[in-house]
Amino acid sequence: MPANIRKTSVIVEETRQDIGRAVNPPTRKAAALAVIENPFAGRYEEDLTELMDIGAELGELLGRMCVEALGIKPEEAEGYGKAAIIGENGEWEHAAAILHPKLGAPLRKEVGKGAALVPSVKKLGGPGTAIDIPLGHKDAAYVRSHFDGMEVRLADAPRANEILVAISVTDSGRPFPRVGGLTTDEMIGENGLK
Fold first, then answer.
1. Distance from the Cα of residue 13 to its chain's centroid
2. Which residues lie below 8 Å from residue 23, measured CB to CB, with a gap of 6+?
3. Is residue 1's pLDDT more than 80?
4. Cα–Cα distances in Å, from 179 out to 14, 61, 175, 176?
5. What is the model's pTM?
6. How would you classify the pairing of strands 131-137 and 79-86?
7. What is the C-alpha separation between 79 and 148, in angstroms, rounded?
């Protein structure tokens, strides 16, 4: 059964200067959010396949929305992350079902690879709850310049019987990274780590 989506939102954050210095080119992050009905709100359900399938649907939809919002080709995406907020009538496992088993493969297709694990976070909350989407390089988890996050929220979501699902995609790392570690020029990008 497809997701029953109440609303979507796309946010693009562009950093043009930081600490008084111009960022050229600007670093950009996009987040795409979907507020969906939780089909299992208020009750325990052993089989969470429906939420897993919704995760696959949203991985494709939200990943594509992010890439389009950044105006880049899929292979130009550099970082990604995912998050979910469960409304009060849901449970933690509902977020896990959406985010983990099936969301990653369709997202990776939308960003032109994605050898690394997709960083994730989940929480319970009501309307207006903020969540930080953790970010990392899509092909090499050890690239420190891409350790980052993007805070998102919607004033009216999630309601008690809803789930807010968010994906973020970046076209770069942080401005002026200088804490060492593997760089994008040094990475191999095949095993998801280096």
1. 14
2. 15, 16, 17, 175, 176
3. no
4. 22, 34, 12, 10
5. 0.95
6. antiparallel
7. 9
